[in-house]
Design goal:
The chain is mostly helical. It has one domain: Orthogonal Bundle (Farnesyl Diphosphate Synthase). It has 15 helices and no strands. The radius of gyration is 22 Å and the shape is globular. The chain starts with a helix and ends in a 9-residue tail after the last helix.
């Protein structure tokens, strides 16, 4: 009789531990969404919309914006999911990434691979039929670059991984411009450059905080292979170049964008120099303060672009 009772207790415990049907579905959907790294996608989309506004110096068609955002999100989700498949061994040993779906076996590795590939194909089909061929081709090129150049080649081999590999994160502005104009013109390349020079300070600030994580995983991020003072100095250098680069958009924008670019740039440079001063003086540095403000800075600059274009103020224009 006691054996029967014990069996019932085990059965009850197993039933309690196993999620119910709807809950299991929610957990599974949540795991697949997590593979796409939605926080990263949000940041990319924040830059895509202003690029579309600037391309036409007006508010684009809502349907075109929606199609571009959905196709772009699918492309970014594809790249991120495939990155999770390749970097599962790294994610297991890093505290920051130990809760990712493949580490917790929430999603089988094979399923994650298929999911990433389907999203990639879907992004091309979506953009090709609803936007244009150029935008679709650029999205696929971005996925391939992120996987084969950054993830498989640069990430585990060089401290310059996020400098050159970060080019993949710059492509949404180019895709947004191509979606509106069907071409790629100089303002798109300038916006590309803004994000390109923004990426190292943003990522190195995070890596300073999680240096031991990257060291344990064998990823040669700059804070792992260089002194904190060298890293902070590089952050300052890239920050100055980034802020200066934003001013290259002045011929295509008005005084409104110029004012926000200068004010936001001054604000960001203050925190970059403060981090450098903290490191040099031996005071406990707070790199995450710069990391979080880097997100806010990028949002301010690109939102200023969008508002400037939507209002339709006269562009400053070229001096010749």
């Amino acid at each position: 009789m006691s054996l029967v009772n014990a069996a019932h207790r085990r059965s009850d415990h197993t039933s309690a531990a196993r999620p119910s049907g709807p809950r299991r579905v929610r957990q599974l959907v949540g795991a697949y969404v997590a593979l796409t790294k939605p926080q990263v996608i949000e940041l990319l989309l924040v830059t895509t919309i202003p690029a579309m506004f600037l391309a036409g110096r007006s508010i684009p068609s809502p349907l075109l914006m929606l199609a571009t955002l959905v196709g772009g999100a699918m492309a970014a989700g594809s790249a991120n999911a495939l990155n999770c498949v390749i970097d599962a061994d790294i994610d297991k040993v890093m505290k920051r990434t130990r809760r990712r779906p493949l580490v917790r076996d929430s999603v089988p590795r094979r399923n994650a691979l298929v999911f990433g590939l389907v999203l990639g194909v879907g992004s091309f089909v979506m953009l090709y039929f609803t936007v244009n061929l150029l935008a679709a081709a650029l999205a696929v090129a971005t996925i391939l670059f992120y996987i084969f150049v950054y993830t498989l080649v640069l990430k585990r081999r060089t401290a310059q991984n996020v400098v050159w590999g970060g080019a993949a994160g710059c492509m949404p502005v180019v895709i947004g411009w191509a979606a509106v104009t069907g071409t790629v013109q100089w303002p798109a390349f300038v916006m590309f450059g803004v994000i390109f020079f923004w990426t190292p300070p943003h990522t190195w600030a995070l890596a300073m905080k999680y240096r031991e994580d990257y060291e344990r995983a064998g990823v040669p991020m700059l804070p792992v292979v260089a002194t904190p003072e060298h890293v902070a100095r590089q952050i300052v250098v890239y920050s100055w170049v980034m802020v200066g680069w934003t001013l290259l958009l002045l011929p295509a924008t008005s005084w409104l964008y110029a004012a926000f670019a200068v004010l936001a740039g001054t604000w960001f440079l203050f925190y970059a120099h403060r981090l450098y001063a903290q490191v040099r003086s031996g005071v406990p540095a707070k790199p995450m303060a710069l990391f979080h403000r880097s997100n806010t800075y990028l949002m301010i600059v690109f939102c200023a672009l969008a508002v400037d274009s939507a209002i339709g103020l006269p562009a400053i224009g070229l001096p010749f």
